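Quick illustration for those who missed Monday's session on complexes.
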Amino acid sequence: MKRTIVAMPGDGIGKVVLPEAIRVLDAAGFEAEYVNGDIGWDFWCSEGNPLPQRTVDLLAEHKVGLFGAITSKPKNKAAAELDPALRDKGFVYYSPIVTMRQHFDLDICIRPCLSFPGNPLNFIRKSADGGFEEPKVDVVIFRQNTEGLYSGVEWTNPPADVRAALDTHPRFKAFRDVPGEDLAVSTRIFTRKYCRRIVTAAFEYADKYGYKSVTVCEKPNVIRETSGMMEAEAAEAAKRFPHIQLWSTNIDAQMMWLTKNPEDYGVIVAGNMFGDIVSDGFAGLVGGLGFACSANIGPDVAVFEPTHGSAPKYEKLDPSIVNPIAMVLSACMMLDHIGEKEKSDRIRTAVAAVIAEGKVRSYDMMKLAGGPDVFARGAATTQQITDAIIAKM
Ligand code: NAI
Ligand code: MG
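Prediction with NAI bound:
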């Protein structure tokens, strides 16, 4: 059966890397039809909506999306770039990614961080004898994607009834006399249903792919209620997976252990903000933005994207210098999701072979400052990297 995939290039380098991933998917023999989904800055400017309803409809119909990256800008810039015909008509810019995650309830965010042997960007650490060691990192972060500190329930100068409600908590005493305009409150809301879904997804993944541990990375000693709920649900889920160890770390300590013993961790599960932080931390150990892939999975729809943004400063460079691997690995996650693991394995093996060989490297892998001169200094173009991956397959 031929699948239909909603391809949403978005802005900037999203438009560069998405077609590269499709070339690799084609070469792997993945038979699909790609329908274009409009998303991003151009549609904000021309229509007052960076995620037009027609794109939402396409995702609802076809269930699987491949997404490049979008540009977002602060409120005043967004207003200034809106088509003059649409100004003062009540259009407000809102991130289309957040809208998409909320609309389709894409609550499970998966961010694998795997080191490829031969990648010059891999983390190394000094060993006790003065030499260096390069620990193998194979960590998969499960980040709750829709709640927590990013739920958007926040105020500066909270309304009187909110203040009154806060005042019922004994600990609010310390803030009682702060004038409204000097008081900012961002809520960290966790619900049992979504804690349960994310920890269950983490255990199921560990089980399916043979990871020996699931680590809850929160801060239950201080943020007792929300982190506490995540921990309690993890302990419940763990009972169904007795062969997988349940570990618990605090986010601050985890960031320290990141560089001390990253090889010890397998699956890590966290709320929205700590998941965001810990996944960037681990991504930095395995090559950074050029390698960081992700999946956003909901009950019905799933969207796969590199974690990098639109890198506007490189958007106009022709040929392009950016690394397509993060996007290609995101496409592999899509293949895993729809049961095409054999094809994703082939692609990952080819990516690993290109990296191990070290002949074709993007500017970031060569640790160069980005710019048009990187080719003269030996860096490959985006397209050449894709070609090399395809050739290995
Ligand atoms: P960015 O991720 O676009 O770029 C930061 C830097 O990382 C780039 O200047 C470049 O040096 C490097 N980089 C990014 N992708 C790369 C790749 N594939 N290969 C090699 N190097 C790469 O983040 P930045 O500059 O903070 O934001 C630019 C725009 O992207 C903003 O408008 C921001 O709002 C948006 N953004 C969108 C995201 C998304 O679509 N998911 C995520 C992050 C930012
Ligand atoms: Mg982030």
